[in-house]
Amino acid sequence: MDFGLSDEQVMLQETIRTFVSNECPTTRLRELFDEGRGHDPVLWSALSQMGIAGLVVAEEHGGIGMELLDLALVAEVLGEAALPGPFLGHWLATLGVGLAASDAQRARILPWLASGEKIATFAFQECEQSWATDDWTLRAREDRLSGTKHVVMHASQADFFLVGLEAGKLAWVDARAEGVNISSVNGIDRTRPLSTVEFDDVAVEILHGDSKDADRLLAYASVLLAADAFGAASKLIDLDVAYAQSREQFGQPIGQFQAVKHAIARLGTEIEPTRALWWHAAYAQDHLPSEASRAASMAKAHIADRAMGAARESVELHGGYGFTWECEVQIWFKRIMFDRSFLGTPEEHRERCARLAGW
């Protein structure tokens, strides 16, 4: 039995990897990182034309109709590149519509999202560490919504919000509607800017799904964050190898020193085996529903911790210079910090795994 990727999946990754390498080299990435907007419309448009925006949208609605594993494979490549853009928020909003919307709502909304013509993101969190569906308290009254959501990615670029409501309901909101107020907040990862969004008697469209759809969507998010963190950690190992080969001490590259060799080798043995963890979690979302939620939380918890350890080690391998603004390492370090904390820390997800296992 072959447990590897199909030829099509390998080609998907290599196509995106080649495009990103050519169109967003380190010099361009640094420009976007310094700007802090976390968005390049040219990159977004080009990748949308390649089908990335609608990768998991059904073909009848203008998408490609692939599975979550395929989307997670793209997330890995974007994590490797620390690519700025509204991809994660857009994917999750799109998946949410696919899960919870009626047939008529899907037919109207999904073609916009699949083409990338409209950008969407999701707004779930209401206060610090309040990300689970049980914590959502906003309630729509006669299809009008008032309240506040925090830690919303790419809110300023979004045309629509997928908003979490009381009892795990989901609502669709026009981000340009009267009564929507967006305030930028400082975030650690400048490739994915954050905002606070206030809704003041805003018209909303309630989707037909329930809390099971919302919980499933959060599991999708955990898988994609795990894949992104894995890609970022893998990139840091590559940066460590390159630095060890070029940085000299005592007349020779530091990669010749046993302590440096062992440190980099240890990172490889800690990160690479976790690939199977998020592959399985992504596959489970479409094929193993009884395992899906627990596998997603387990992948996010374990990979985020391992990736964070790799980030800290990379700073040390760069002699502490890796933490400075001038060094590339800090870009991936901060991306991993975001992946680790967003929508639940490893500790929270381990507790969730225990509950799901009946412990």
Short description:
The chain is α+β, with helices and mostly antiparallel strands and 359 residues long.
Radius of gyration: 20 Å
Low-confidence stretches: none
- How many β-strand stretches? 9
Please give the CATH architecture of the largest domain: Up-down Bundle
CATH C-level class of the largest domain: Mainly Alpha
The structural class is alpha+beta
- Please state the average pLDDT score: 93
Helix content: 40-55%
- Shape field: globular
**CATH fold type of the largest domain:** Butyryl-CoA Dehydrogenase, subunit A, domain 3
Q: In which order are the strands of the major sheet placed?
A: 1-3-4-7
The number of helices is 12
Order of helices and strands: HHHHHHEEEEEEEHEEHHHHH
Strand fraction band? 5-15%
The fourth-level CATH homologous superfamily of the largest domain is Butyryl-CoA Dehydrogenase, subunit A, domain 3
Describe this structure in words.
The chain is α+β, with helices and mostly antiparallel strands. It folds into three domains: 7-88 and 100-115, Butyryl-Coa Dehydrogenase, subunit A, domain 1, CATH 1.10.540.10; 120-209, Butyryl-CoA Dehydrogenase, subunit A, domain 2 (Beta Barrel), CATH 2.40.110; 212-356, Butyryl-CoA Dehydrogenase, subunit A, domain 3 (Up-down Bundle), CATH 1.20.140.10. 54% of the residues lie in helices and 13% in strands. It contains twelve helices and nine strands. A four-stranded mixed beta sheet has the order 1-3-4-7, covered by helices on one side. Strands 2-6-5 form a three-stranded antiparallel beta sheet, with no helix packed on it. The protein has a two-stranded antiparallel sheet with strand order 8-9. Strand 5 (180-185) and strand 6 form a beta hairpin. Helix 5 (87-100) packs antiparallel against helix 6, helix 7 (211-246) packs antiparallel against helix 8 (258-271) and helix 7 (211-246) packs antiparallel against helix 11 (329-341). The two termini are 34 Å apart. The model has no long low-confidence stretch (mean pLDDT 93).
